[in-house]
Design goal:
The chain has 269 residues and is of the alpha+beta class. The chain is built from 6 helices and 10 strands; from the N terminus they run H-E-H-E-E-E-E-E-E-E-H-H-H-H-E-E.
Length: 269
């Protein structure tokens, strides 16, 4: 599933659509997580794209009237091409601006494409979200206030979008490793020093991943079809039975809250 760095990379990759007018849309399959509304074409045609931003794992296309919200779900991807590019299997949606096509492909169809003309922060998808992990609102004091009475695992807590958005499985594992914190530790056992270190490393890992274009492990590619390279920087994610780069003991995997978690039982305590 694309996580925050991948979505941020895609958001940056479609900035050349800003200032363009939507000339057409093509819906080949409306059956996504939420069905694409039947009259979406008439709401989008001739609208001008004012800005393209990211909130959590959502891409937000601000129009001169209203917003188009895109979520990639488990297997979605976005590419940019010209009109000569023939559609292929699972290409469910095209947003056309002159000679440029923003094409949405999603084999599992867990993503969504939603139009709203209401204030974006009041939309049901955004109203209960926590702060962005790269913002000043996400700091050690804030994190402690959210976890100091919770006995859920710290990994589960930092992946909770009500606490902080966008930290998926890959980057939670990597940040906890860099912070020397076991992913199984209860939130209420994390002290202020550890919280400070964890916040800092979450931000370091995410920034580094964005700079390298995200992690290409399965289906993820950037909008130009090239891959990201942060998977080459992984210390623990997907490294079961490989040697820890710090202590040479073996990385292990454990299921935590339904997700495989990778960590070093010697470096992380």
């Amino acid at each position: 599933m694309p996580e925050l760095p991948e979505i941020e990379t895609i958001t940056q990759g479609i900035q050349n659509l800003v200032g363009q007018k939507i000339s057409d849309i093509i819906v080949r399959n409306e059956s996504l997580r939420y069905p694409i509304e039947s009259n979406l074409k008439y709401k989008l045609i001739d609208k001008k794209i004012i800005a393209i931003t990211r909130r959590a794992k959502y891409i937000i296309i601000k129009l001169n009237y209203g917003f188009l919200i895109i979520h990639l779900g488990m297997s979605g991807s976005i590419s940019l091409s010209d009109l000569s590019n023939v559609d292929k299997k699972h290409d469910h949606f095209d947003l056309i601006c002159g000679n440029i096509i923003l094409r949405y492909n999603d084999p599992r169809r867990f993503g969504c494409i939603i139009y709203t003309d209401n204030a974006i922060e009041k939309h049901k998808l955004f109203s209960s979200l926590g702060p962005e992990p790269l913002s000043n609102n996400f700091n050690a004091n804030y994190l402690i206030s959210k976890i100091n009475n919770r006995n859920s695992s710290i990994k589960q807590l930092i992946m909770d979008n009500h606490i902080v958005v966008g930290i998926g499985n890959i980057y939670a594992c990597e940040a906890l490793y860099k912070s020397n914190i076991l992913p199984t530790r209860a939130g209420n056992t994390i002290n202020e020093t550890e919280a400070e270190r964890l916040v800092q490393n979450i931000q370091v890992v995410l920034k580094s991943a964005i700079e390298l274009g995200g992690s290409s492990l399965r289906d993820y590619k950037k909008t130009d079809g090239t891959i990201g390279y942060f998977q080459n920087e992984h210390f623990v994610y997907g490294k079961t039975n490989e040697q820890c780069k710090s202590c040479n003991n073996l990385i292990i995997a454990k299921r935590i809250a339904g997700r495989n978690s990778f960590y070093c039982p010697y470096c992380q305590v």
